Amino acid sequence: MEELQNNYPHVLTFNEIKKAAETIEDGIIHTPLCEAKMTKFMDYNVYLKCENLQYTGSCAERGIRNALIGYGNDIAGHGVIVPSHGNMALAAAYHGVSLGIPVTVVLPENTPPSHAQRCSELGADVVLVGDTLQDSTFYAKKVLRDSHQLLITSDDPYVMAGLGTVGVEIITQLPETDAVIVPVASGALLAGVLIACKKLKCSCLVYGAECSKAPKMMKALQSGGPVNVATFPSLADGLSAAVAGPNAFATIKGRLDRMLVVDEMYISRALISMLECERLVADGAGVCAIAAVMQGLVPELRGKRAVCVVSGGNIDSGRLARTIQRGLGANGRLMRFAVALPDNRSGLEQLAKIIAEESTVLKSLVTEQMWVHSDVATTWANVVVETVNDENAVKFKDRLRDIFPSARFAITDIDEKHKVGVR
Amino acid sequence: MEELQNNYPHVLTFNEIKKAAETIEDGIIHTPLCEAKMTKFMDYNVYLKCENLQYTGSCAERGIRNALIGYGNDIAGHGVIVPSHGNMALAAAYHGVSLGIPVTVVLPENTPPSHAQRCSELGADVVLVGDTLQDSTFYAKKVLRDSHQLLITSDDPYVMAGLGTVGVEIITQLPETDAVIVPVASGALLAGVLIACKKLKCSCLVYGAECSKAPKMMKALQSGGPVNVATFPSLADGLSAAVAGPNAFATIKGRLDRMLVVDEMYISRALISMLECERLVADGAGVCAIAAVMQGLVPELRGKRAVCVVSGGNIDSGRLARTIQRGLGANGRLMRFAVALPDNRSGLEQLAKIIAEESTVLKSLVTEQMWVHSDVATTWANVVVETVNDENAVKFKDRLRDIFPSARFAITDIDEKHKVGVR
């Protein structure tokens, strides 16, 4: 590794990826590349590279395993320390045990309890510290001075090379690939896939996709180098690094075809499409590439074969349930409104009639008499109904407003005039 | 088909399955057979035959396609009518369009709106009628006298033969299979898989798994023939047929190794394990075989290779979200309790302290002062917290009871002493 450390920032080469592919061959799953079933409703031929089907549910395993084997003797005694949002931690816990290397993972305190639990079950020492990945990384750097552990981050050259094997598999599995879209956290996966795909098929377009809540790679490209960006809570928490990795950036710069910035709303939509159409569980970061297609950010790929890398599927079940419900709300399939009912039986009856006749399904109804500013003969009802589709939702809304002009609806996507790349 | 119709009930033969395999070859997906990741935590080598990854999300496509092609000229003009809970309907809608055959599907009125919508989008005429599959079938039979459509049910010999191709694929994909466990609705899938597997590998054990809320096949085996059983709402609504199919029963009788009856609770557990460990979406019916293993119903298969057929993945998103939340509740990971807080600041503070110190996460807290029977200086709080695991839940409970002896917990699995086949 001497030459790598002397050469900072490190620009990844295809040779490193090729070597990584041999190194990790026996320890990772060659995940399926399958045609997306949602393609039948879209103008794109979308394929999914299902890295969510790795044993610990993400492509991070490829990078971590390559690093653990690559550093070999350097880490045999004291082991490694890995700051992570979850995917790197789970991968390190699993492969550390299988290779007999002690692993400490450092997770932000807001990591879902089930992830921390899983790392611990797999055999890692788990430390919960700080609010962000930067806090965790800072803590890890401080600790390792005494512990003599080796720090592994996603910007590590071995990790980037391991991640690049995703690109090798894509071009091998589908040589006709026209474009690959890759979710971007710190950029390591994008860097690896970019070098692999461009080498194996020079006409292949490569795009990065990141969430608008943490647009660090777009900002780095605009600024000519990694800079810190403000980050906001996002469903794609795996992408919430505040700054691009220096090695990843150096590798990507001048080689990437385009960087895409995806709205949060399309991430929840994509997540639900994955569940409903593909029957696959992916996390918010994992669906970022698909979300970019759904948002209509790549019109030039209409009719072409676009591979979306589904980088991971580690979403906490509780969060998944909440996401589905919010997603149904955002799509207008769950609709929330408040309506003033006169205090006589016909008020509720009229409401019930509209609900029944429009084939919507009542989900909840809570009445409020105490804190109401309207007249005392009125009861406010807070109602949630499930609708069949957008059309049904709009019709229901119109009809309700005819009878109850004071009805107030919670804002949903269908009110906004977003254009979706879906027929 | 003459010989079939004259020979009632019809006992399925391997030749019919072989012919079906050739007939449907080009129109269905050869779904993956993969090692279950949850196997690492169990004493069994469980494999999953992922029929949830068919285009419309279930193995019903195999049966329906074989019937639509097999009946050929009989249905070219008037088309077919298919009463269904969902999977058969979706399969018929999809393959009907692809083969140019008009399809009417009859669904019970409580079918999730998204399923009916999907059938309609795929091009089928959709009729919603009655409360149960029996009502839908009764309606379909009445209508077709005038419409001259052909009725296709799951007990159709062509359908059974098509479903049997699942068994052929299992033995081809994993010749070392020791046992196959198959979810049982009316029994057609079990009949097909049974005949195929026993023919191709006579030592292969074949089990059926059905839900205790509709144990029609167990009852039929005990009674020597199909009889109606009382059915209750279940997460595995796809299995809620009240009576075994006569053809399926005649095929299964005397050949089946064992019938397993699974508790509802293990179906929701299995569904969550599929999401969390396998990153696959399956419906309640689809996880019935896995649930049987988790419930410890097949101890004789410890250490052996057991293939669980994941028959389908058509679960409505809203229902999926609810199931996850109930499942988390059943597993003790969401815990609900009511506690009497004295009306002074220390009451809430003590509660908050226990929640924080035990690393549980507060999900909701609603206070109630009006309808309380205890003294007026007390506020009841209804609380939901998320716990890390069973151990954490038990510890939290003990500690809360020490401070608040009147605390009342909603009943969860961990209170019951069920034995699970999980280490």
TrEMBL record, chains A, B:
Pfam families tied to this protein: PALP
Using the record, list the residue span of the signal peptide; answer none if the entry has no such feature. none
Spell out the InterPro entries in the cross-references: Ser/Thr_Dehydratase (IPR050147), TrpB-like_PALP (IPR001926), TrpB-like_PALP_sf (IPR036052)
Biological process, per Gene Ontology: isoleucine biosynthetic process; L-serine catabolic process; L-threonine catabolic process
Q: Does the keyword Cell inner membrane apply?
A: no
Write out the GO MF terms: L-serine ammonia-lyase activity; threonine deaminase activity
Keywords, sorted A to Z: Lyase, Pyridoxal phosphate
Q: Which cofactor does it need?
A: pyridoxal 5'-phosphate
Q: Where would I find the Tryptophan synthase beta chain-like PALP domain in this sequence?
A: 24-312
Under the heading PANTHER family, the entry gives: ACT DOMAIN-CONTAINING PROTEIN, THREONINE DEHYDRATASE, MITOCHONDRIAL-RELATED
What is the recorded name of this protein? L-serine deaminase
Organism, as annotated: Arctia plantaginis
The taxonomic lineage of its organism, from the top, reads:
Eukaryota, Metazoa, Ecdysozoa, Arthropoda, Hexapoda
